[in-house]
């Protein structure tokens, strides 16, 4: 028997689900971790820049203020440890804007799209669904620089671009790995420049820096894409915990795909 896909949730049902699964609401990412990353971005640590450059000063207080506005983290600078939050309504608002931008791209016709993720243990499931969606509605799903390799930071292991059903990731010794690196996307753009990118981490940052229309996902401890959005380099960034159980993203994905489809 063929299993029928579940109906997409209503906005309120999705909001409840996001809180229950900690995709938003009281998230696992600690306040200490968030603030550390905001300071690192303010100091222009490349690991936290995701391949972006910024025109503004973006000192630590500015980054915290932006993250409170865009992701819903606690705005009080005196809150230095313990629980931090992502506002589920901000997640859904950004998700709807992402859907509208994807739908607008598909309505234009003939788009050449790259889909990529630096979080194969979490967000891959969303990206796979979006890759299927855009291909089914007439976009050309690009797979440039497959097998291109580089030496990663840290232990200096060799990494390569690998595709799974049209979604780009980085592999290391046969394993799909988490990465912030912008280098793979830069190599892909150099070989075959897309019109539109759906991504996260350095994949999204490098695409936005190159002037490509880009939408992406980011956790509350990854402020770079939100700053990129504020400066007009990223179209929209969806705030969410980017590494919960993959199945928890099912209702979010269904909501996103349904909205794209209804907008076509």
Describe this structure in words.
The structure is a single chain. With 264 residues, the chain is an alpha/beta fold. It has a single domain, classed as Glucose-6-phosphate isomerase like protein, domain 1 (Rossmann fold), CATH 3.40.50.10490. The chain contains 10 helices and 11 strands. Strand 3, helix 6 and strand 4 form a beta-alpha-beta unit. Helix 5 packs across helix 10.
Low-confidence segments: 1-5
In the CATH hierarchy, what is the superfamily? Glucose-6-phosphate isomerase like protein, domain 1
Question: How many E strands?
Answer: 11
Q: Report the mean per-residue pLDDT as an integer.
A: 95
Write the H/E string, N to C. Answer: HEHHHEHEHEEEEEHEHEHEH
Q: How far is the first residue's CA from the last residue's CA? A: 30 Å
Estimated radius of gyration: 17 Å
Shape from CA axes?
globular
CATH topology, anyone? Rossmann fold
* Annotated CATH architecture: 3-Layer(aba) Sandwich
The CATH class, by name, is: Alpha Beta
Strand fraction = 15-25%
Q: Please outline the major beta sheet.
A: 9 strands, mixed
Helix content: 40-55%
Estimate nothing, just give the exact number of structural domains: 1
Question: How does the helix and strand content classify structurally?
Answer: alpha/beta
Count of DSSP-assigned helices:
10
InterPro entries: Phosphatase_SCO2771
Organism: Planotetraspora thailandica
Protein name: Putative phosphatase
Pfam family, one: Phosphatase
